Amino acid sequence: MLAKFLFSSDDFEKSLRRRRLFAFGMLAVGITGLVCFLLLVNGNETIPEFIQGFYMGAATGITLGAVILLVRATYLLGHPEALKKARIKETDEREKQIVNESFRLAGVVTFFTVAAALFVVLPFSFAAFYALLGVMVLYSVAFLLADVILSRRL
């Protein structure tokens, strides 16, 4: 869904080619994570198990997501009938509204969840507190910048 949101344009085939390039980039990140897991992290007794699990889980998830995106984009580019159906569905105004509202709602939930988490983590870890505070600041700045840019464009 993120690739659809980031790489949608009036030219649907061009959008699919961009998504395919994005998938290759994600695949490179995922494979890098898997290689790091296998060569650096796996079996290293000085690294806690939860970190090893993170490497394995995140790298596998990113790799699988990239493969799915790559296969779908390549399939659609090679099959005109499927491309036509996907274009109609994705350019539908209702579908666009659903995606926009989903991102808006996800942002609101994320912001308030992080705000609540600040109260929970502060007594235990200043590093976690500052990381979460940084996420809130980044979200707020990104929101304000997007608002300014979109208000000028639209």
What do these coordinates show?
This protein has two domains: 1-91; 92-154. It is mainly α and 154 residues long. The longest helix is centred in the first third of the chain and has 30 residues, at 12-41. 87% of the residues lie in helices and 0% in strands.
Cα radius of gyration in angstroms = 20 Å
Proportion of residues in extended strands? under 5%
Terminal residue distance: 23 Å
Largest sheet: none
Count the strands? Answer: 0
Number of domains: 2
Name the average pLDDT: 89
**Element string (H = helix, E = strand):** HHHHHH
Count of helices?
A: 6
What is the 3D shape? flat
Q: What tags apply to this protein structure?
A:
single chain; 154 residues; mainly alpha; 2 domains; 87% helix; flat
SSE order and pairing:
Layout: H1 2-6, H2 12-41, H3 49-78, H4 80-91, H5 93-121, H6 126-153
Helix pairs in contact: 2-3, 3-4, 5-6
Could you write a compact summary of the structure shown?
By secondary structure, the protein is mostly helical. Helices cover 87% and strands 0% of the residues. Helix 3 (49-78) packs across helix 4 and helix 5 packs antiparallel against helix 6.
